[in-house]
Amino acid sequence: MYAYIDGELMTIKEDHIVIDVSGIGYEIFSPNPYRFQDKINERVKVYTYFYVREDTQMMYGFKEEEEKELFKKLLNVSGIGPKNALSIVGQTSAHDFAMAIDREDDAYLTKFPGVGKKTARQMVLDLKGKVTEWMNAQSSQTLTESVTQATSHHIYYDEAVEALKSLGYSAREINGISNQLKALEAKSTDDVIKKGLQLLMR
């Protein structure tokens, strides 16, 4: 229904952004809203998917069109809902995901939150041969490198969270900045801790 929305980025929250188009504010849920941080109060184009069910209507938005297409394909997998699909899109590229499906790489697929071996198998069964258009796309990382970096980032994040707790910050306070910390391209645990302290002391 809505291929994309082009307007002024007004607000960034933990799970969504708000774009103003001619005085109408569109609330758009995104894999990682803070990726749009550099566009705040500027015009931005977001590729959107309007999700409609009997009890809900939600708009999902993505920085790249490939992300939107991956999200749509994930929704067609038995057992995958919007929340899981959004989480997966936020943690991989279409190219790397397609390579994992083609290789039937359960170890890669089960790294995503909420995805166990059964769901990983279902993704392979439902998507094998349907995501080949992304497999030849240029990528700055191999699948192995991507997995290694993702694993390292999770370790940095987990260690930083424990450090912040030891400094007296509550789980609720830390959860309030978790998306910003996860979006950080950190090279060490210290990087994540320093960013966390900056955010918590605002």
Automatic annotation (TrEMBL):
CC annotations in GO = cytoplasm; Holliday junction helicase complex; Holliday junction resolvase complex
Lineage of the organism:
Bacteria, Bacillati, Bacillota, Bacilli, Bacillales
Q: What does this protein do?
A: The RuvA-RuvB-RuvC complex processes Holliday junction (HJ) DNA during genetic recombination and DNA repair, while the RuvA-RuvB complex plays an important role in the rescue of blocked DNA replication forks via replication fork reversal (RFR). RuvA specifically binds to HJ cruciform DNA, conferring on it an open structure. The RuvB hexamer acts as an ATP-dependent pump, pulling dsDNA into and through the RuvAB complex. HJ branch migration allows RuvC to scan DNA until it finds its consensus sequence, where it cleaves and resolves the cruciform DNA.
Which protein are we looking at? Holliday junction branch migration complex subunit RuvA
- Protein family per UniProt: Belongs to the RuvA family.
About its domains, the entry says: Has three domains with a flexible linker between the domains II and III and assumes an 'L' shape. Domain III is highly mobile and contacts RuvB.
**One MF term in the entry's GO annotations:** ATP binding
| One BP annotation, GO | DNA repair
UniProt keyword annotation of Cell cycle present = no
Asked whether the UniProt record includes DNA repair among its keywords, one would answer yes
Source organism's superkingdom?
A: Bacteria
Q: The Helix-hairpin-helix DNA-binding motif class domain covers which part of the protein?
A: 72-91, 107-126
- Where does this one sit in the cell? Cytoplasm
Q: How does it assemble?
A: Homotetramer. Forms an RuvA(8)-RuvB(12)-Holliday junction (HJ) complex. HJ DNA is sandwiched between 2 RuvA tetramers; dsDNA enters through RuvA and exits via RuvB. An RuvB hexamer assembles on each DNA strand where it exits the tetramer. Each RuvB hexamer is contacted by two RuvA subunits (via domain III) on 2 adjacent RuvB subunits; this complex drives branch migration. In the full resolvosome a probable DNA-RuvA(4)-RuvB(12)-RuvC(2) complex forms which resolves the HJ.
Q: Which InterPro entries match?
A: DNA_helicase_Holl-junc_RuvA_I, Hlx-hairpin-Hlx_DNA-bd_motif, NA-bd_OB-fold, RuvA, RuvA_2-like, RuvA_C, RuvA_C_sf
UniProt keywords (A-Z) are: ATP-binding, Cytoplasm, DNA damage, DNA recombination, DNA repair, DNA-binding, Helicase, Hydrolase, Nucleotide-binding
NCBIfam families per record: ruvA
